[in-house]
Amino acid sequence: MKFGFFDDNEKEYVITTPKTPLPWINYLGCDNFFSLYSNTCGGYTFYKDAKLLRLTRYRYNNIPTDTGGKYFYINDNGTIWNPGWQPTKTELDSYECRHGLGYSRITSSKNKLKACVTAFVPLEDNCEINQVLLTNDSTDTKTFSLFSYVEFCLWNAVDDMTNFQRNLSIGEVEVDGSEIYHKTEYRERRNHYAIFAANQKADGFDTSRDAFLGAYNATDDPAVVNSKCSANSIASGWSPIGSHHFNITLKPGESKSLIFVLGYIENKEEDKWESLNIINKKPAKAMLSRYSSDEQVTVALNNLKDHWNQLLSKYVVSCKDDKLCRMVNIWNQYQCIVTFNMSRSASYYESGTGRGMGFRDSCQDLLGFVHLIPDRARERIIDIASTQFEDGSAYHQYQPLTKKGNLDIGSGFNDDPLWLIACVSAYIRETGDLSILGETVPFDNDESKTASLLEHLRRSFDYTLTHLGPHKLPLIGRADWNDCLNLNCFSKEPGESFQTTGPSEGPIAESVFIAGMFVKYGKEYATICHELNDFEEEVRALAAVESMNKAVLESGWDGQWFLRAYDANSNKVGSHECTEGKIFIEPQGFCVLAGIGVEEGLAKKALDSVKEHLDTKYGIMLLQPAYSKYYLNLGEISSYPPGYKENAGIFCHNNPWVSIAESVIGRGDRAFEIYQKTCPAYLEDISEIHRTEPYVYSQMIAGADAVFHGEAKNSWLTGTAAWTFVNVSQYILGIQPDYKGLVINPCVPSGFGDFTITREFRNAIYYISIKNEHNTQKGISKLIVDDKEMFSNLIPFEKGKTTYYVTAIME
Q: SS3 for 52?
């Protein structure tokens, strides 16, 4: 069942009913100022940090769902409704929500009055614009009222939800015409405030939530809207809001536009006023002047569209599969950028109050956006590396505003160090910029302890190398990629830290998955050393990689698939010897994509076992059989009900690893089959089952053991976006950035046909035509670049050259 459709020409998803299975959202903002915006106008806004600088409130896990947002109420002769349906839920005569790239537009009508709300964050200012266009489609003159409404958050979202003894006394506002200033805490800090303003003179206003709603009323039945008369209230202490009231009369066919701006102002030191409670309005008024007319708003929106069109032009595929094209060309890359901006901090599943930026998460996210914004990727790498410790380990998370490590989470996730090598390698292969390796980067953001980025990579590499267990496999620490696989749990006393040193007496858990990572990214570290002519370090790295490869084959192979790990007592995890959890997805994908077992014929066995034991029609499950009870030696993974999350759920994040692995051994049919199963565009027809947005990836889908098999959760902010784009762009379509140029190495399904790709790479445009007359799944027989036949499938990069015309023939 569909709830909308793709409009590929406009790069929009069009939702045709407000009653979607879950809120279907969009992200507004490109740099520092962001809004989450749902198909019923729900969501919230923040500046840089969703915890510390939140402008508007949102109540998670609320009843009814998705209440709280930027609402516009219309009282048309006693009929009260909202253009986005919520919160009044008045039945609408028509409804449409168009989620585009960085903007959303909701158009609806009731009793022949049409309302169109266009919301976006402009490129140049820290504000959200809501343009409201009202049109009288009747044959009679209409007189009605329009009320705006936002509920201000008192900046720190956690404190706002908990510290009521203080917060119910600090709300403070100021009204200047149609400008409502939220200046709570301005007395204390005098450096920032929020503003909610309209571009025309209002007939009334409210800043007190109690006055606007009325005693014991909710947002679906506000007293002021019912009475069609604002209270002109000034909030003092109690919960502050922003609301404007307009009395409007429209003749038949007449339209009226109103522009509302919700903005954040941060005063420069010299702009602070001496008085503790009088704000400096000049910066706000200057910003408002830039969006005071429809013409200005149109220009700003077109600039935003041009920005996204330019970004997405860097990788464009044309083939006969429309679903593949729309995901590769539009939605997958768009989601990669959003995930870069947010990491995992603020979605409809992460409240924005805890996680911050993840070390592992941000490193992986970079794989999907580095080709789009390499300069910002460079900045992100330095931020990430700065949280690393001197021994090569790292904080698992850091706060986006302060760039400081999250002390509550700490470190001990032993896969983290290797992801730094992964993202730096991806950046250099994309840009050719080896100079980043010489950047001076602090440890733990302590400027007294610094080293080159290359030294940070060496310590990442050596951290794994010096933390090996009895099988010469890497220690897992608190966990590896699977945060819920806590194999050292029962060996710890309460309050005791995790094993972080090398082998010693006592139980130590080991990870085959990290071993696969070490082989993959150890090779990439060796290549970086080679590019720097540090051949001694290259030889050392490759020797260590070979030793790890040998350890996996000797101690990590279970007969038909790779083991997952050894627990703290050296018992096998993910083995045919186990009663439950016999096989896991992670090592099958990552070991094979790292090349382990390919020459020995083990890779095919492992991937065949994945298909036999883990495959479903909705994707590959994380493990099987599911754990039916809690296992102390495994930890949180066995605490979930069977089929959900890490306990045999379908993690869309690591399905691409298996698809990539299939492409490594040349099975294009299977690689593409795996790609399709979790790709949202191919799931649009079953949205009543899948439930999350059909235009972006979700983190997980309920597995075969779950009650609601096929139901997705945790959409938008997931490493699925980056890894899927790496999979489809570099391995299925086969355009792989390399230190010396672009490698053409597709692995496609039978019948895929010819296809073309336009790829921007190091300031040059590559026009690539791939011919597949014989339905070959993998293999380039001839590569012609600018009428010259190459001797390999590498297109050497030539500095200063701006265009390449490429023909690749598959046989």
A: coil
**690 in helix, strand or coil?**
helix
Query: Is 263 part of any domain?
Result: yes
Give the DSSP H or E segment for 412.
none
**Spatial contact of 56 and 152, defined as CB atoms under 8 Å apart:** yes
Residue carrying structure tokens 């602090």: 442
Close Cβ partners of 599 (under 8 Å, ≥ 6 residues apart): none
Of the candidates 752, 757, 766, 758, the one whose C-alpha atom is nearest the C-alpha of residue 796 is: 766
- Percent of the chain whose pLDDT exceeds 70: 96
- Compute the C-alpha angle 804/805/809, nearest 5°: 130
List the one residue out of 614, 737, 591, 734 whose CA is nearest residue 661: 591
- Residue positions annotated with a catalytic role: 483
In a domain? residue 788: yes
Contact 196, 232 (CB under 8 A): no
Neighbours of 544 (CB within 10 A): 19
Peptide bond into 64 cis (omega under 30): yes
To which H or E segment does residue 588 belong?
Answer: helix 585-593
- Rounded distance between C-alpha atoms, residue 584 and residue 177, angstroms: 63
Domain count, the chain: 2
Q: How confident is the model at residue 740 (pLDDT cuts 50, 70, 90)?
A: very high
What are the DSSP E strand ranges found in 71-126? 71-76, 79-81, 94-99, 103-110, 113-120
Cα 20 to Cα 255: distance, rounded to the nearest angstrom: 30
What is the C-alpha to C-alpha distance for residues 301 and 102, in angstroms, rounded to an integer? 9
pTM: 0.96
| Domain termination residue (choose one: 309, 340, 357) | 309
Judge if the upstream peptide bond of residue 680 is cis by omega within 30 degrees of 0. Answer: no
Tens of pLDDT, residues 281-336: 999 999 999 999 999 999 999 999 999 999 999 999 999 999 999 999 999 999 99
Domain that holds residue 229: 4-309
From the CB of residue 169, how many other CB atoms can be counted at a distance below 10 Å?
11
Which residues, in sequence order, are CB contacts of 276 under 8 Å at separation 6+?
186, 187, 190
- Is residue 239 within 8 A of residue 247, CB to CB? The reply is no
CATH, residue 750? 2.60.420.10
- State the number of CA atoms in the 13 A half-sphere of 81 facing the CB: 22
Residue 296 phi, psi dihedral angles, 5° rounding: -65, -40
Classify each residue of 556-572 as buried b or exposed e, where b means 16 or more C-beta atoms within 10 Å of its C-beta.
Answer: bbbeebbbbbbbbeeeb
408: amino acid identity, one letter: D
Write out pLDDT tens, residues 417-456: 999 999 999 999 999 999 999 999 999 999 999 999 999 9
CA–CA gap between residue 187 and residue 193 (Å, rounded):
11
Q: Is the peptide bond before 625 cis (omega within 30 degrees of 0)?
A: yes
Measure the CA–CA gap between 266 and 276, rounded to whole angstroms: 15
3-state DSSP assignment of residue 792: coil
Per-residue DSSP letter, 405 = B
**What contacts 644, CB < 8 A, 6 or more positions away?**
700, 702, 703, 706
Q: In this structure, which amino acid lies at residue 650?
A: I
Residue 681 sits at φ, ψ, to 5 deg, of -65, -30
Higher-scoring residue by pLDDT: 353, 55: 55
In a domain, 437, yes or no: no
